[in-house]
Specification:
about 120 residues, mainly alpha, two-stranded parallel sheet, about 70% helix, elongated
């Protein structure tokens, strides 16, 4: 008898806990649109975009370029990247040599990241 009352008490506590969490979650969803979100600045940040030569990747790359981010485009089709390069060059206010140096640094950073990821993957095996 005491055990069944205790179980009933535990079930009641769990159900009330669940209802409270659901109420809080719904309340947060209603309040969230009215609370301004802090926007992160990407100025000077290195952003790697896969499939950046065309489609959605290209649109995302253009958006980040307008926000003064350092963009590393990664695409299987080199022709798209080569066609896209002058567009980025016109968006940036630096000389072609400065841009090439920046791209070389970005490529070296990506190569370093890939090596690090491969080393981590090998350690997991």
């Amino acid at each position: 008898m005491i055990l069944s009352l205790f179980n009933l008490f535990l079930i009641t506590v769990e159900i009330s806990n669940l209802l409270l969490r659901i109420t809080i979650s719904i309340g947060q969803q209603f309040i969230k649109p009215f609370v301004p979100q802090k926007k992160k600045s990407v100025d000077g940040q290195i952003i790697v975009i896969t499939g950046g030569g065309s489609g959605v990747g290209r649109a995302i790359a253009l958006r980040f370029a307008k926000l003064n981010a350092i963009i590393v485009l990664w695409d299987n089709n080199k022709v798209f990247i080569q066609l896209f390069y002058p567009i980025f060059y016109s968006l940036l206010s630096m000389s072609r040599n400065q841009l090439r140096k920046l791209l070389n640094k970005s490529v070296k950073l990506v190569e370093l990241l890939i090596r690090l990821l491969l080393m981590l993957a090998m350690k997991r095996k």
